[in-house]
Specification:
The chain contains four helices and no strands. The model has no long low-confidence stretch (mean pLDDT 74). Helix 2 packs antiparallel against helix 3, helix 2 runs parallel beside helix 4 and helix 3 packs antiparallel against helix 4. It is elongated and about 95 Å long. The N and C termini lie far apart (105 Å). Helices cover 82% and strands 0% of the residues. With 143 residues, it is mainly α.
């Protein structure tokens, strides 16, 4: 075997191994990408709880910021009750996903979203409770 054939073989062998391994690596990465994009029940429950809690935070903040005499969903007693209910439901959904999750954060079971849902649900419930207390106080003063 000549030196040039030896050189060509030494360069081509690793490249051939890489080109043969590339389709297998692409298949593995495609499977993991599909698993990362799919919505499991944990991810869905945690996302629903977080979005519900976030809506409660918005409504609770508006109920605290607006006076009770203004017309709208997020004002007065109705906004306070909506924020409180949304926060408690978001908190319950997040807690349910936290309890039933198999793996840790980053495994695709929705545990990270459950933590977010619990925190946002607590904030929403607190804002709703504060707004409800203020609505009761203003109702007592006007009656």
């Amino acid at each position: 075997m000549s030196v040039s054939h030896l050189f060509v073989t030494a360069v081509a062998a690793p490249l051939g191994g890489i080109t043969l391994a590339a389709p297998a690596a692409a298949h593995v990465s495609a499977e993991s990408a599909a698993a990362a994009v799919s919505m499991s029940s944990g991810r869905l429950g945690a996302s629903a709880g977080a979005l519900l809690g976030l809506a409660g935070v918005v409504v609770g903040g508006l109920a605290l910021a607006r006076p009770a005499s203004r017309v709208g969903v997020a004002s007065g007693r109705l906004g306070a009750v909506l924020a409180l209910a949304a926060g408690l439901i978001g908190l319950a959904l997040g807690g349910l996903v936290m309890v039933t999750s198999d793996g840790g954060v980053g495994t695709g079971n929705g545990l990270g979203g459950a933590y977010v849902a619990v925190v946002v649900g607590v904030i929403s419930a607190v804002l709703g409770g504060l707004a409800l207390a203020r609505a009761r106080r203003t109702d007592r003063l006007t009656a």
